[in-house]
Amino acid sequence: MSILLFVMLGVFIFMMFRRNKKTQQQQAELQSKFGPGVEVMTSFGLFGRIVDIDEADNKVTLELSPGNLATVHRQAVTKVIEPAAEATSESAAASPVVPDDASSLTTPEAGSTATGAETPEETLKRLNDEGKKDS
Q1: 8 Å CB contact between 75 and 58
Q2: pLDDT in tens, 76-99
Q3: For residues 78 and 71, is the Cβ–Cβ distance under 8 A?
């Protein structure tokens, strides 16, 4: 029984060291991609472009928007944003056209008139007919 306990403890310690090594490898791979001009995301959700890296102080200067700089700790940068695939003219032509006004947001329902507003009598009749359908 005690041998089984030591074996389980050994497996637990092995898995813990393995996980730490894997995390360190991923962090080293991420750090190798850092360089000026790379789009990144911080652990707190800021997106920016790396302007400068200070190796001695572990600081990264990010340009959040033109003229706005932020200095963060190097470990706060958690993700490198890959450039989006270039939109081709074919995919641009296949995207739906969005109108500038809200006319396309409402569609006339079946049985309603699209030419004008209904009279109070027509509204009452329509509401009564809809109530009969539900029951």
Answers
A1: yes
A2: 888 888 876 554 555 555 667 766
A3: no
- The span from the CA of 60 to the CA of 77, in Å, is 8
DSSP assigned state of 27:
H
Q: What's the full length of the chain, in residues?
A: 135
| Distance spanning both ends of the chain, measured CA to CA | 69
- Residue 56 in tokens: 């001695």
Measure the CA–CA gap between 69 and 67, rounded to whole angstroms: 6
Q: What is the pLDDT of residues 17-31, one digit of tens each?
A: 999 999 888 888 887
Strand partners, 40: 48, 80
Residue 55, burial from CB neighbour count under 10 angstroms (0-12, 13-18, 19+): exposed
How far, in Å, CA of 122 to CA of 116, rounded?
Answer: 12
Position 94: which residue type? Answer: A
Angle at 86 between CA 82 and CA 89, to 5 degrees: 165
Cα-Cα-Cα-Cα dihedral sign, residues 18, 23, 27, 29: positive
